[in-house]
Specification:
It is built from 15 helices and 14 strands. It is about 45% helix and about 15% strand. The relative contact order is 0.11. The longest helix has 18 residues. The chain is of the alpha/beta class.
Length: about 375
């Protein structure tokens, strides 16, 4: 049996896109007979040192301080654990380029184990390392991982641009639980919408962190142009972030607050996908966005920007709509087209669901990793 330890600087209960993806991924590996466990930092001392999350063993390691001290303590703790528990794993799968990745790769080389590094945002993770005084040493360490996982075709280019070995780069996108994120019958959808106390209108939904990169400013200005002409539509903005208050205030300033609901962060986001009619994603920068996969798996027609990993997923006018550019007018046209063409929107949603089932189900993606693990050992 192949034994894998996932080394993640942060993990449950902190679940951003990367952590959520690896939790779902770990569950799928476990079901397929791969002995899977997670090591992470104990960033909150109220958290248990050992835990079981959705049948996945999680060990939280000692850490303290902030900034450099926190990074250093994480690196030391991970290195010590990997040395002491070396008989408990064959492969170290690292979730981000950080202090944890340096310690994990060094431990792997010392123990003659295999290491895999996934980088979801090279423009952020690798750029931050490049700014460090120790940049040459840190990149030297990173380049000694056995494989690098690029979540999109664009990220392959980013890896190459930073000098990573072409032969070690593998394209494996994120995956989605197609049983959890599934469409409902219309009667079920109407009942759930009533339980969630949402208006009986056409629901357009955005899910993501509320920050500039996600294009919320463009969405709000676009919504003003759309909502002024009709009262049968409603916008849900689901998520939290450093600019939550700014976007909430912007909606009030431009007079659209009555047709929008900012939900904040939700744990039952799959239910909000299920009562939605259209998913909109005007992001300026993306790797392989989980929420896009989840929306498509739920059978929603998509309006999205043609950037990053989105273009690896969306086939324009086949399983979604890619707007021409990140602008208010382009986004307005895309949303209006789906709102005014319900039959075509439903067709796109059905084709989106089929495409995800065939190419991005978590079981399909887990099989790719299992093949990679087998080839490495």
């Amino acid at each position: 049996m192949i034994k894998v330890v996932i080394a993640s600087k942060h993990f449950y209960p902190l679940l951003t896109g990367t952590e959520s993806q690896f939790l779902t991924f770990a569950q799928s590996l476990q079901k397929k007979g791969i002995d899977t466990q997670v090591i992470t930092s104990r960033f909150n001392k109220s958290l248990a040192k050992k835990d079981i999350i959705n049948y996945i063993p999680v060990t939280r390691l000692f850490s303290f301080g902030k900034g450099f001290l926190y990074d250093l303590s994480c690196a030391i703790s991970f290195f010590i654990w990997l040395i002491m528990k070396r008989r408990n794993y064959d492969i170290i799968h690292i979730t981000t380029a950080s202090s944890v990745s340096f310690a994990s790769i060094i431990a792997a080389k010392f123990l003659k184990k295999k290491s895999i590094l996934t980088v979801s945002s090279p423009d952020i993770e690798l750029a931050k390392i490049k700014q460090s005084f120790f940049s040459p040493i840190l990149f030297y360490i990173l380049k000694h991982a056995d494989r690098y996982i690029a979540l999109s075709e664009e990220l392959i280019v980013e890896f190459k641009r930073h000098g990573f070995d072409d032969c070690k780069i593998c394209y494996i996108p994120n995956g989605v639980n197609i049983d959890k994120f599934r469409p409902l019958l219309q009667s079920e959808k109407d009942h759930l919408k009533s339980l969630l106390k949402l208006p009986n209108k056409k629901i357009i939904t955005f899910v993501g962190q509320l920050k500039y990169r996600k294009g919320i400013d463009v969405l709000l200005k676009s919504w003003k142009q759309i909502a002024i002409h009709r009262d049968d539509i409603y916008l849900l903005i689901i998520g939290a972030g450093i600019e939550f208050d700014r976007f909430l205030n912007l909606s009030k300033e431009i007079g659209i607050e009555k047709s929008i609901f900012f939900t904040g962060e939700l744990k039952n986001v799959e239910q909000y996908f299920q009562i939605s009619d259209i998913f909109v994603f005007p992001s300026r920068k993306e790797g392989c966005p989980n929420v896009l996969l989840e929306a498509m798996s739920t059978g929603l027609p998509i309006v999205a920007t043609p950037i990053g990993g989105i273009v690896d997923i969306i086939r324009h006018m086949e399983n979604g709509i890619l707007i021409k550019e990140i602008s208010v007018d382009s986004l307005t046209d895309g949303i209006n087209f789906l709102v005014n063409n319900q039959a075509f929107a439903q067709k796109l949603g059905k084709q989106a669901r089929e495409y995800i089932k065939n190419h991005f189900s978590i079981g399909h993606i887990a099989n790719k990793y299992i093949e990679l693990y087998g080839n490495l050992i």
